[in-house]
């Protein structure tokens, strides 16, 4: 894996979040706690994606 914004790290992070989401789906009963878990996981997935987009933009600007 290259740097902190590498494509491989993003894929691994999103896979870990997806595995956690599957775990949430099968282990937590529908309700407030499951909804909270979905929101938290979605937040982290969004942060990973935004971080990668920022890294790509910085790389393009640097040349």
What does this structure look like?
It is a single chain. This protein is mainly alpha-helical and 63 residues long. 83% of the residues lie in helices and 0% in strands. It has helices spanning 7-27, 32-62. Helix 1 runs antiparallel to helix 2. The two termini are 21 Å apart. The mean pLDDT is 90.
What's the topology here?
Blueprint: H1 7-27, H2 32-62
Helix pairs in contact: 1-2
Observed structural traits:
single chain; 63 residues; mainly alpha; 0% strand
> Gap between N and C termini, in Å?
21 Å
Structural class: mainly alpha
Low-pLDDT stretches are none
Mean pLDDT: 90
Topology order in helix (H) and strand (E) letters: HH
Let me know the number of strands.
Answer: 0
> How many separate structural domains?
1
Helix fraction?
Answer: over 70%
Radius of gyration: 15 Å
For the largest beta-sheet, the strand count, sense and barrel status come to: none
CA-based shape: elongated
How many DSSP helices? 2
Strand content: under 5%
Give me the oligomer status.
Answer: single chain
Task: Describe the structure concisely.
This protein has 63 residues and is mostly helical. 83% of the residues lie in helices and 0% in strands.
């Amino acid at each position: 894996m290259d740097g902190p914004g590498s494509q491989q790290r993003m894929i691994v992070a999103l896979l870990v979040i997806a595995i956690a989401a599957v775990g949430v789906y099968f282990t937590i009963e529908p309700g407030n706690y499951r909804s909270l878990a979905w929101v938290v996981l979605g937040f982290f997935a969004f942060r990973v994606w935004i971080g990668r987009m920022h890294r790509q933009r910085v790389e393009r600007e640097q040349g």
